[in-house]
Amino acid sequence: MKKAGILTFHYAVNYGAALQCYALKKKAEALGDISAEVINFIPPGWKPASGTTNEKTGKFNMFLRDKIKIEGPSFSELTSDIYGKYEYLIAGSDQIWNPSEAWSKLDYYTLEPAPDNIIKIAYAASIGTPVEMMTHGQIQKFKQFIPGFDFLSVREDTHNKFIQQFTEKKTETVLDPTLLLNASDYEEILINPGKNEKYILLYFLNHDLSAPNIISFCNKLSRKTGYKVIHNLQDLPANTFCNESGSFNSASPEEFVGLVKNAEIVITNSYHGTIFSIIFGRPFYSFIVKSMASRIYDLLCPLRLDDRIIEGFKPLSEVSFELDYNHAYGKLSIMKSNSERFLKNAFNIQ
C-alpha cells in the first residue's frame, strides 16, 4: 500500500473543515492501493473560535477519532522526520493558503521541509481571499513554495492563473473534497434530527455584519411558509426568530449533515453549507460575503445555480422552493471525473 499523509486544518471546530478532511481521506483510499493518514498537526497558538462550547468540541474530537481515525497526541511543529513517514504528501483542501489570517496559513501548509523524494500534491487548495488584496510579501511567499509541488490543483478557478505563474507544471481546478463523495456516502454517517415539523435551516458563519439581513429573510420566509427555523446562532435576544425550533450550535458533523438533508430549505452564507445543500438536492439560498464572493460564484456559476445567490436582499415573491438539479448534477459528474483523474495521476494509479 502506498502511504499518503494529508495536511489540512482538520482541528478547526467547523463543519466544512472536518467534513472536507473526512471526504479527502475516504476518496483517496477508495482509489485503491492508498493508505491515507491525516497528519495531526495543530499550529502553535491556535484556539477555537470564541463561543465554541466544550460539548461541540467534544463531538468534533469524537468525529476525528471515530470517523477519520486520528489518534494519538497532536504536535505543533512540522519536521522532515514527520513528513518522511510517507511516500505522498497532500496539502489540502479548504483555505490552507489564505494569507490574510491572524496566523498565516502560508507558514505551515507549504509541505516544507519535506524530503525531495516524496511526491508533493496540492489538492483543491484555496487562497480564500482576492489576489488583488495580497501584499508583495505574501505574493513572494507563493513564488517561493509553489515550485516545490509535483502536482498542483486549486479549488477556485479564480486562483488558477495566479498559481500558474509560479510553476511550469500545469495547475488544475478541482472539486472541493466534499463533492467527491455521493449523498449515499454521507448517509452512512449522518444522524437524522428526529424532528416531525418542517423547518428552514439557517447556517450562518460570522464573516461580516450581514446577520440582521439573513435573520430578517428567514423570519419573513418562516411567516410565509409556517416552517420553523433551526439555526446555529447563539446568545441572541429572546424572540429573535418568530418561529424558532432551537439552535444546532453544538451539533456534531454527523448531526449537521442530517439537518441539511432533512431541511425544507437551507439559508446560509457558508461555502460548505451551500455544498451540502447541493449534495442532498435541497433548495437553498447563499448570502454573499464580499471578501469571499469568488468561491461561491466559482462554485455555483458553472452549475447554473447562480440564481440562488443573494447579494443583500431578495423579495419573497422571487423565492422558489423548486430547484432543477439536472444540469448541476451532470456538470458535477464531469468535474468529479476530472478531479479523480488528477488524484490518480498524482498517486500513479492506472
Architecture blueprint of SSEs:
Elements: E1 2-7, H1 15-30, E2 34-38, H2 54-66, H3 80-83, E3 88-91, E4 119-125, H4 136-145, E5 151-154, H5 160-164, E6 171-173, H6 183-187, E7 199-203, H7 211-225, E8 228-231, E9 244-247, H8 253-262, E10 265-268, H9 271-279, E11 284-287, H10 293-300, E12 309-310, H11 326-347
End-to-end separation: 15 Å
How many helices in DSSP terms? Answer: 11
Q: Please, what is the average pLDDT?
A: 94
Number of strands: 12
User: Mind telling me the C-alpha Rg?
Assistant: 20 Å
Total domain count:
2
Low-confidence stretches: none
Structural class: alpha/beta
Q: Which CATH class of the largest domain is shown?
A: Alpha Beta
Helix content: 25-40%
If you consult CATH, what is the topology of the largest domain?
Answer: Rossmann fold
